[in-house]
Design brief:
Largest sheet: 8 strands, mixed
Distance between the termini: 116 Å
Oligomer: single chain
Helix content: 55-70%
Structural class: alpha+beta
Number of domains: 2
Shape: elongated
Strand content: 5-15%
Number of helices: 10
Order of helices and strands: HHEEHEEEEHEHEEEHHHHH
Radius of gyration: 28 Å
């Protein structure tokens, strides 16, 4: 009976999505005009999916999944909130007054006994709790109209983060890569905490892929330098490539919470412990350190190329000045010979 109801509901989801898309075509075109998705500055490269072994304590209830995606550099949360309200399939939830830049929503219709929640973060990440794959794709399609700097769709599918969760009679905890939630009570803040860590990890994975693609794009330059060949890059191109590096470094170190715990957890010790455990399990600190080391190396290489090209430019200018002086001396000699000889 549950399977039949689930099939009917998913059909309803798709039909409602199609109906809303047709009904709001003009509104979507306006949204695209205002928030036109562009390709990210750095080229993107698909990396092998990181596999983690999940070993948790046994649970008497079935294990569910929380899945995180990062599809864009940023979301327009105001427009997304209105779109969810107009669609009528999901109900927005209020978390806490100091929770910013996130939209929390719950499905109005149940596929099974457990709730289905989603957390949409302003920095372009979304986390699904107990969502089937078909419904996840439907929501991701809905979000496309409100993305800024959309990522490559293949990369989005490759760079996902997934954790299993189940319920027990104790307080929320995170053990060996598995989430355990209380069977009773409000779970929004606990789910938000785990979602926060997962969203951070999947966003970092996108940046890691961007840096890998950047490194691949400059490998030919390293070979040219090693073999003593002419550098096939202008000073303007080197300047732009350096700008890409500093843009990525800014995102990692200044525009994200990769280096510090968010302020939200300062007076919530239990949630902070859960957040730190997830961050540690997903190796976020070590991955961030490795990325910064790679960025430093790439910046040093770009600086070396910049100095090399500037030196060549200065040499050309000096040669041109010497040639002009020689021409001037030649004219003076001709003028002198014409006057006195």
């Amino acid at each position: 009976m549950t399977a039949k109801f689930g099939a009917i509901f998913l059909g309803r989801v798709n039909s409602r999505l199609v109906f809303n898309l047709c009904r709001t075509t003009q509104a979507r075109l306006t949204a695209h005009a205002r928030f036109s998705p562009t390709c990210p500055t750095l080229p993107l490269k698909v990396r092998p999916t990181r596999k983690k072994s999940v070993m948790g304590e046994p649970s008497s209830e079935s294990t569910l999944s929380a899945v995180a995606y990062s599809t864009a550099g940023e979301y327009d949360l105001t427009a997304i909130g209105k779109a969810l309200q107009q669609q009528g399939l999901y109900e927005k939830k209020t978390l806490s007054q100091d929770v910013e830049d996130v939209v929390c929503a719950a499905a109005k219709y149940k596929l099974d006994q457990e709730h289905r929640d989603l957390f949409i973060f302003k920095e372009g990440s979304v986390v699904f709790w107990n969502f089937p794959e078909l419904e996840r794709k439907a929501v991701l399609d809905l979000l496309k109209a409100y993305e800024v700097d959309s990522y490559n769709s293949t990369l989005v599918e490759q760079e996902t983060e997934s954790l299993e969760y189940s319920f027990h009679n104790n307080k929320a905890k995170f053990v060996n890569g598995q989430i355990f939630l209380p069977s009773e009570g409000s779970l929004e803040l606990e789910k938000y905490t785990f979602s926060n860590g997962m969203a951070l990890s999947v966003k970092l994975a996108i940046w890691e892929a961007s840096l890998d693609a950047y490194v691949e794009s400059i490998e030919s330059l390293i070979e040219d330098m090693k073999d003593g060949r002419k550098i096939q890059m202008t000073r303007d191109q080197v300047f732009r490539k350096t700008g890409e590096l500093f843009s990525l470094r800014h995102l990692i170190n200044l525009s994200s919470d990769l280096l510090d715990t968010p302020d939200f957890y300062w007076d919530r010790e239990n949630l902070e412990n859960l957040y730190l455990k997830v961050v540690k399990y997903l190796n976020i600190e070590r991955r961030t350190k490795v990325m910064n080391e790679k960025l430093t190396h790439c910046c040093e290489l770009m600086e070396l190329l910049s100095h090399h090209l500037e030196d060549k430019h200065h040499v050309r200018l000096e040669i041109m000045i010497i040639v002009l002086i020689m021409v001037e001396v030649g004219f003076e000699c001709l003028h002198y010979s014409a006057r006195f000889l």
